[in-house]
Specification:
By secondary structure, the chain is an alpha+beta fold. Helix content is 48%, strand content 7%. The protein has 20 helices and 8 strands. A hairpin with a 6-residue loop joins strand 1 and strand 2.
């Protein structure tokens, strides 16, 4: 729980808004990081579109219509900016293949890209202005979520939506040219729209995919309401009755949101996923992959597997209230460490195809998943980036093959190369990938978003 702000302390929202709407010139390495994440997000969005993973959201966004302010990603259709952002947020997160900031366990691009593209197109912003606004959004999403490490998840809420409404609001406020006072109101208004229940974990419902879209839509509306004269509480972070008081638990540090703004850049600390599964399972997957590479055994040789799991990861990916060996839906499989580990052993990799409906019904994977156990292993670091992975694979001949990694691949300390990222984008975006990669990497020099949006068009085979 948080205490009310000291009388002589400027509310966090005021400081954040002043920074986010003021002169902002991020260093070159920060801009490069933002470009990489926007490219990754565009790739995952087009992958989601090609797979039809969130077709209902795209249909609803198209039906909402509105003034032709922004393009529905991947198409020529133009709708109101909030509707476009609703669709884009769901598309980026549709395959659960989008990036993750480990400090707050938040999917940052899913709540930054939608507002940046929709409002950027609406106001005719240059690529450089959109990129700068995106950096402000990345810093906001990551810092707000990290101020309550696992605090939203512990209350049964999705940090991506809870923190994402604020990043979307500040991105929109900056691109709309709001001053610091109006941007503070936008943040305050956005706080009343924070949420995102984790109930999908036990039902297989698609609400997790919707959360970034909800956050992006709400953030733009908050900025518009503030521009029209609506007010929001400047104490939305500090309390009393702020977002952390209401929606988080455990240690909360609202002041950390603005500590080192412009000096310490969380944008460079976001990881890019190599696997389309919950980030909290990645260290174990990498360790199992390492064990398989060491000995080259076949899945049929395996009689038992035990992997280390961080205490903060176990409730999400090893929740025994679900049948972890026989997931009911592709999304349930992405959040089952035993099933994903078994799939890694059977297939030698974990890809988008791993979680196809036909794939998750394979009896050989289910049988192997029932042999997978886990050991909860305390570790002082953040589970999504710092926790090491360790696996012990017992074979039919009695041998125990071990695998280990210091931390999962794709994080800020073990980043994917540009070549690996481009390969991921090609796998997700298909034929549009080449033009998309070129346009996104040139974003800082584009006079408008038109070339980027044109490059993002995809043809869906009937």
């Amino acid at each position: 729980m948080t205490a009310g702000p000291a009388r002589d302390r400027v509310p966090v929202a005021e400081t954040l808004a002043a920074w986010g709407t003021g002169p902002l010139d991020p260093p070159a390495e920060v801009r490069r990081a933002a470009v990489r994440h926007l490219l990754d997000g565009l790739g995952t969005a087009l992958g989601g579109l090609r797979a039809g993973a969130v077709a209902p959201v795209v249909a609803v966004a198209r039906g909402l219509g509105g003034p032709p302010e922004a393009t529905l990603l991947g198409s020529d259709a133009r709708v109101g900016a909030p509707a476009a952002a609703l669709a884009s947020g769901a598309l980026v997160h549709a395959l659960d293949f989008d990036d993750t900031h480990a400090g707050g366990l938040v999917h940052a691009t899913a709540v930054v890209l939608p507002a940046a593209l929709a409002v950027g197109e609406q106001v005719g912003a240059s690529g450089r202005d959109v990129l700068t606004a995106a950096v402000a959004g990345y810093e906001t999403a990551c810092r707000v979520a990290a101020a309550a490490p696992h605090g939203f998840h512990a209350r049964g809420l999705h940090a991506t939506m809870a923190a994402g409404v604020f990043s979307s609001a500040l991105v929109a406020a900056r691109l709309m040219g709001l001053d610091a006072a109006r941007a503070t109101d936008a943040l305050g208004i956005a706080g009343s729209q924070a949420g995102g229940l984790l109930a999908f974990l036990h039902t297989g419902a698609s609400t997790k995919q919707l959360h970034p879209g909800f956050a992006s839509h709400a953030g733009i509306l908050a900025a518009r309401l503030a521009a029209a004269g609506a007010s929001g509480p400047a104490t939305v972070f500090d309390g009393p009755h702020g977002v952390f008081d209401a929606l988080a638990t455990g240690a909360v540090h609202p002041e950390s949101i603005v500590e080192g703004l412009g000096e310490r850049w969380e944008t460079t600390r976001i990881g890019i996923k190599p696997y389309p599964a919950c980030q909290l399972a990645h260290a174990a997957l990498d360790a199992v992959r390492d064990a398989r590479h060491r000995e080259g055994f076949a899945a049929a040789d395996v009689v038992a597997v035990d992997v280390d799991v961080h205490p903060d990861s176990a409730p999400t990916v090893c929740d025994t209230r679900r049948d972890l060996a026989r997931p009911a839906t592709p999304y349930a499989a992405k959040f089952s460490l035993p099933w994903s580990v078994a799939a890694m052993l059977v297939d030698g990799d974990v890809t988008i195809a791993t979680y196809d409906p036909a794939s998750i019904a394979r009896p050989e994977v289910e049988a192997l998943a029932r042999t997978v156990t886990w050991t909860v292993t305390p570790h002082g670091g953040r589970p999504a980036a710092d926790a090491p992975g360790a696996a012990r694979v017992t074979l039919a001949d009695g041998r125990v093959v071990t695998g280990a990694v210091r931390r999962s691949a794709g994080g800020p300390d073990t980043p994917l190369s540009d070549e690996q990222l481009d390969a991921k984008v090609r796998g997700n975006a298909g034929p549009a990938a080449g033009a998309l990669i070129a346009a996104t990497r040139a974003l800082d020099e584009l006079p408008s978003l038109a070339p980027l949006l044109a490059a993002a068009k995809v043809r869906i085979e009937p």
